[in-house]
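Our consortium's second objective concerns turning raw sequence data into structural hypotheses that experimental partners can test. To show how far this objective has progressed, the report includes one record in full. It was chosen at random from the queue rather than selected for favorable results. The single chain below, 197 residues long, was entered without modification.
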Amino acid sequence: MRRICKADESDPGGFIALLKAVVVPRPIAWVSTVSEDGVPNLAPHSFFTVASQLPPVVQFTSIGHNDSLRNATGTGEFVISLANRAMFEQINATGTNYPPEVDEFEAVGVGAEPSELVTPPRVAGSPVAIECVTAQTVEFEHSVVVFGRVVAIAVDQAVLDGDHPDISRLEPLARLGRDEWSEVGRVLRAARIVYEG
C-alpha cells in the first residue's frame, strides 16, 4: 500500500521535504558570484544540473531571491565549483544566511583564485570550476531557475585519468533528504545499447 501526498494539501513544507527526499542524490552547485558593489558571495545550491549540451548550459535554482540570484542576474556571471568531500564542512558553512555585505570566502575561510573568463572567483580547493555567463532565468513563485552558458571549465590535473575526470578523485558530494549528504558509492558501468532493428 502506498501513502499518497498531494501538492495542494495544507502542509506544503512537508510535501517539499518529501519531494527533496525522493529526488536523490542531488549534485551541489557551489556558486560563487560578485555583487554589483564588488562583494564576493559563495553558497551551495542542491537543485543543479546540466540543462543543455549544445550550447553548453547549466542551471541552478535559487530558493527565494537570495544573493546568488541577485548577483548572477545583476552582473551576468557566476562560477560553479565542484562540492567535494575534502571541503564538506566549508560547503555546509557557506549555506549560512550571511547578509549581502559579508564575503563568505573570508567568513568561512575558503581560498579564492581568479577565474579565466569571468569576474567571480573560483574556489581554490575545489578540483573543478565551471565559469558561466547568465543566459536567462525562469521564475516559479518562490523559486528562480538560473541558466548559465558555460564559457570555460577549469579542471585540476590531479583528478584526471588521461583527459577524463576520475570520479574517485573528484569525490563529489550530493544532497539527500533532511540534513543528509552522500558520497559516491559503488560505480556501475554499462555501454549504451544500440538498436539494430
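The partners drew two points from this record. The longest strand covers residues 128-140. The chain has one domain: 27-176. Both points have been shared with the crystallography group to help prioritize constructs.
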